[in-house]
RNA sequence: GCCUGGGUAGCUUAGCGGUAAAGCGCGUCCUUGGUAAGGACGAGAGCGCGGGUUCAAAUCCCGCCCUAGGCUCCA
């Protein structure tokens, strides 16, 4: 046997023999580590402790104190679910059952499950855990494996594709149950301390809606019941800050049954949106955009030229209909309209970049099951903009936009994740143009020193895209801002400028949205702030609370003086304690409390939603502070910070 | 669109074959209060929509709409 060298996480090297397993190597390092070994990470890949090593590699030993341990445990939990399912529903066919960031799922076929079934399976799974069955790796030769899955075309497909070259094939067995699996797994089912089945949903075999519909069961598992309880409590807390719930409590917006996916902004929600609009206008001006306004209603012909028609209408995503023998539609994007504006005069290379912005109302017929509060809607307003540039201007144009995006997101304290999305199957235009455009975006991201993930094949049909993603309360990622480089639509619509050489050239189009859509962006920040908006955004910035009704006149005087802000007076005949409680519930940044004492001295008492307070505050001082705080877009009320 | 939940007063929820219940909110009155819930009374719901079963349906069955979480798809 030939010697191999394994490199440990601390950089040290160890000699081993080819054919030794991860566990053998752990024993070489130390007796204790060997005993505690659950699995290994070899060259970045999580593998079973029984995995034989055949060549030089980097290795990391996974024990029950490693981060990867939870992954391994959850993978075993998926098997426990499958075992419980098979005990109760022997006809169910297993397909795949991986661990995920939050837990695990298993996709099964041939069985309909509802919540009562889930409860029974949960009870059976708990028994399996209590039985503390040993989990062991076994191998079958290919023939045996195919025979074992005689009645299961899904597992046979896996054997023939993913596990094509493998013979023997790896299985894991616990009690009477065994499942085709590379592993790794924990040693026994008893290691699972907390196990919970959460959701049933439908999925498609290999994620393709042309394939069989499978039943997917989601669950999660932890080492201890306490950790599971904490996790469930966290999910409940996330529900508390759900933007749809906050919208009702704070009276921000509604999406009634008569217009699914279309938002009705209430005065409070509109106040926030107007602040956002003002902010975006300011930034658009800084970037040199000129605001335009284009119609929602157009002939379908427009999008047939631009290429939107085949990508939206033919997927059923565009609202379109026949009228007097002509097909009309609601715009799904603004690019074609802006391009028309560009095309109404002859442009010189000296004119470029030519930049148009619009708060464009667009409509997309999203599938009904996809709608989700403000985060996924059918009618939305993009803070859209298109810059028509010469090739030599692409780089600086994109850089400027990225810089502004970074600055803006800083003002919301939002953590964002950058994505570079590349050419997909629906792409129009040549590969060469695509790679030019992709390089331009990649260089800009690198130029700004931003970390980004590459998502292959995820781009829009006309060009690659930088997506700026944010997370919601449940940790789901949503794209908000975006920057896209497009060499294709200008060609399709035959947009030109006259170059220095007196020849016509196609400009490059930079599509961008800074916040994305006002809908999704608001959804994200409502949850991000948990409704506690910075003062500049808060629908109600100050609430004046009179101690008793006798102080109402003075309260009005104080409120009038703050007239340029969004100020309300609490005029219900409640106790001051009740008024304060209500103002906290409504998350108002500042409460101004006025009673006989304040009135006599011509001062106010100020309390903020962080429960800080000060008495004998002079009225001009508070107002001047508000001017500064709002102007500087502080994230939290700062008047009482130093007091 | 697909699967599993859900839709009862403005909101949150109870009721799950025998002609609708609570808390909050709202209205009126009493209380005029000093830093996170003062009190009394009252109004308010053909129980998502349409069919059916039954002497009787919020409750059971069928269809549809909306909604939540996933799947597929996108800002």
UniProtKB/TrEMBL annotation:
InterPro entries: aa-tRNA-synt_IIb (IPR002314), aa-tRNA-synth_II (IPR006195), aa-tRNA-synth_II/BPL/LPL (IPR045864), Anticodon-bd (IPR004154), Anticodon-bd_dom_sf (IPR036621), Beta-grasp_dom_sf (IPR012675), TGS (IPR004095), TGS-like (IPR012676)
Enzyme Commission number(s) from the entry: 6.1.1.3
Binding residues for Zn(2+): 335, 386, 511
Gene Ontology MF terms: aminoacyl-tRNA deacylase activity; ATP binding; metal ion binding; threonine-tRNA ligase activity; tRNA binding
Catalyzed reaction equations: tRNA(Thr) + L-threonine + ATP = L-threonyl-tRNA(Thr) + AMP + diphosphate + H(+)
Pfam families named among the record's database cross-references: HGTP_anticodon, TGS, tRNA-synt_2b, tRNA_SAD
Note on how the cofactor is bound: Binds 1 zinc ion per subunit.
Gene3D superfamilies, per database record: 3.10.20.30, 3.30.54.20, Anticodon-binding domain, Bira Bifunctional Protein, Domain 2, Threonyl-trna Synthetase, Chain A, domain 2
Subcellular location: Cytoplasm
Protein's recorded name: Threonine--tRNA ligase
Source species: Halarchaeum acidiphilum MH1-52-1
